[in-house]
């Protein structure tokens, strides 16, 4: 992994790489066999480059798999507390269902909808451990009853400079955190995704995926524990049956398909930071002034369009969360 950004063809690139060049470069690297070695090389363009859907396996019918109505309907009360002005148009459900980052399945965001179709998300349980009173396995149903579901429209900003606007369904993560009853000396919480070797076949990384938050971040009302989107249960490719949605942070902090939660007394390691600590720091709040090594973070492309819009500090949510970082 340390050799990741030392390739000579990267050094010659400017920090702002035009999106149109990503695919060519991706193919170039694949031809060189570099993708298989470094893995994370793909992460820098994992969002938004090959616009064509890829049905990489038999049995992937777009009109069936990308139809949001195939998922069970959920009832949720709208919570508009965090609506940002001016409102952005919602990303279409088919765009949100067909363009995903879920590296366990593949590094190609346009193939996840197909590769994840047999990922089993029912029944589901979450293991809780560490510095908290609750210990052991808890079924999803018991977790879902902790607070009534709300619909919240959030902007999502991928570190690779694409964005979407999605009506998520879930409740504030803090209800779950309080139920777990962390001990007084707990400072952080770590989340680990499920790993199912029969469907998650990307061998370029060591799974499972893991992420973490400070407890004060996790207790912020904006942090959502999501179970649905667009009025329906989450699709496998979007992180069914339980994921985080942290709209002020880069998308990789919003871990999908959560299988375990652990309370800790120190900052945990995180999946991407363990691969590159400078590029993917623990906090990873959206920050347009801090460029990625290969592109600017000043603007973002809205998924399903060619429009680019300015990126805002904390993805626009600063009025609610900036105080968390004032120290
Ligand atoms: N969670 C897991 N387990 N594996 C992943 O690869 N990718 C992250 C995040 N959560 C990822 C994950 C990244 S980089 C992004 S941008 C979002 O999921 C994408 O969410 P979406 O596919 O619902 O748009």
Give me a quick take on this structure.
Its EC number is 1.8.5.-. The chain is an alpha+beta fold.
Please identify the structural class as seen in this structure. Answer: alpha+beta
CATH architecture field: Alpha-Beta Complex
Q: What shape does the CA trace take? A: globular
CATH class: Alpha Beta
Beta-strand portion reads 15-25%
Strand runs, count = 13
One letter per element, helices H and strands E, the order comes to HHHHEHHEEHEEHEEHEEEEHEEH
Count of discrete structural domains: 1
Proportion of helical residues:
10-25%
The whole-angstrom Rg is 19 Å
Keywords: Oxidoreductase
Organism: Eiseniibacteriota bacterium
Domain Oxidoreductase molybdopterin-binding: 120-272
InterPro entries: OxRdtase_Mopterin-bd_dom, OxRdtase_Mopterin-bd_sf
């Amino acid at each position: 992994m340390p050799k990741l950004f030392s390739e000579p063809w990267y050094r010659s690139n400017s920090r702002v790489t035009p999106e149109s060049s990503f695919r060519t470069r991706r193919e170039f690297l694949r031809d060189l066999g570099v993708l298989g070695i470094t893995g994370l090389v793909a992460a820098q363009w994992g969002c938004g480059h090959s616009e064509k859907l890829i049905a990489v396996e038999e049995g992937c019918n777009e009109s069936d798999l990308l139809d949001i109505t195939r998922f069970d309907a959920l009832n949720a009360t709208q919570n508009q507390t965090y609506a940002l002005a001016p409102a952005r148009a919602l990303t279409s459900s088919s765009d949100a269902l067909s363009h995903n980052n879920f590296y366990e399945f593949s590094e190609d965001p346009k193939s996840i909808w197909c590769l994840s179709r047999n990922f089993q998300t029912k029944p589901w349980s979450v293991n809780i451990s560490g510095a908290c009173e609750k210990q052991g396995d808890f079924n999803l149903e018991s977790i879902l009853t902790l607070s009534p579901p709300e619909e919240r429209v959030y902007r999502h900003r991928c570190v690779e400079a694409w964005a979407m606007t999605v009506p998520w369904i879930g409740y504030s993560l803090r209800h779950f955190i309080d139920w777990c009853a962390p001990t007084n000396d707990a400072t952080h919480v770590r989340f680990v995704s499920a790993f199912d070797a029969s469907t998650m076949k990307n061998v370029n990384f060591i799974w499972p995926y893991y992420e973490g938050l400070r407890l004060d971040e996790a207790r912020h009302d904006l942090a959502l524990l999501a179970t649905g989107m667009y009025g329906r249960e989450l699709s496998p490719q979007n992180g069914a049956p339980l994921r985080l949605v942290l709209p002020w942070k880069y998308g990789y902090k919003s871990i999908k398909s959560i299988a375990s939660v652990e309370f800790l007394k120190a900052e945990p390691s995180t999946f991407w930071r363990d691969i590159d600590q400078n590029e993917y720091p623990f906090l990873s709040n959206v920050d347009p002034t801090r460029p990625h090594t290969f592109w600017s973070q000043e603007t973002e492309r809205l998924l399903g369009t060619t429009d680019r819009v300015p990126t805002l500090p904390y993805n626009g949510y600063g009025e609610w969360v900036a105080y968390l970082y004032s120290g």
